[in-house]
Amino acid sequence: MITFRPMVQEDVEFVNKIRNQVREYLHDDRALTFDESLEWFVTTQPRFYMIVYNECSIGYFRTSEYSEENRRIYIGADLDPKFWGQGHAKRAYRKFIPYLFETLNLNKIGLEVLSTNIRAFKLYQSLGFTQEGTKRQDVHRNGEFADSIIMSILKEEYNASRS
What we know:
By secondary structure, this protein is an alpha+beta fold. The chain is 34% helix and 37% strand. The protein contains five helices and seven strands. Helix 3 (88-103) links the parallel strand 4 (72-79) and strand 5 (108-114). The model has no long low-confidence stretch (mean pLDDT 95).
């Protein structure tokens, strides 16, 4: 069973390890040390959530750009690669999205995904996210440019897809 909980300082080592393993899929692909990650956590107190499967952390949700006034937030998730391809990300998002809409009274959840991350792009489409636009050649990686695809889902769209 998939659940999630707020990230605490004791999770920093795990989050740092996973982030460094999946950084090729992130907009910022720098490798971070544990100390850098710990300083980031203590300084920013981010609104991250651990993804838990059978009482074991398997990844985490990132949130950013929360606006109470505009009722929107950006999200993303990073999963331990040994849990890829098993449907855990989709199940986690299906629990996390309604949680965010309800607890934060959101109208819109947005995200950005690199054009090279086909698996994530297809996941977001299957969850009902719509492509809003593209930041062309936004990220330079390994001598090539990748687009950053902007996607979102509105509360009314999410609710309609569940009925």
